[in-house]
Amino acid sequence: MKSVNVAELKAMQESKEDFQLIDVREQYEYDEVNMGAHHIPMGEIMERQGEISKDKKVVVHCRSGARSANVIGFLESQGFDNLYNLDGGIMAWVDQQ
To answer: Could you tell me which residue ranges the Rhodanese domain spans (predicted)?
Structure first.
């Protein structure tokens, strides 16, 4: 599975790289802290996968990286090949702020 770390994600954001950031955590988690990502809770991925780009890099994250890895595994089985997991999830992001 392809991944990016927090430093790489920050560099992508700072350089205005064209990519999509997807947060697969639950609504209450997103409400507590978020990075401004497109919010699609893990349980809604199957129905809402049409909202995920197939034409550019997509970084998927959750709290620590486990749920996003599961989501990426599912989406890759659906034909996606442009997905990257955020190493350490939002916990790593918060730690490096």
So the answer is: 15-95
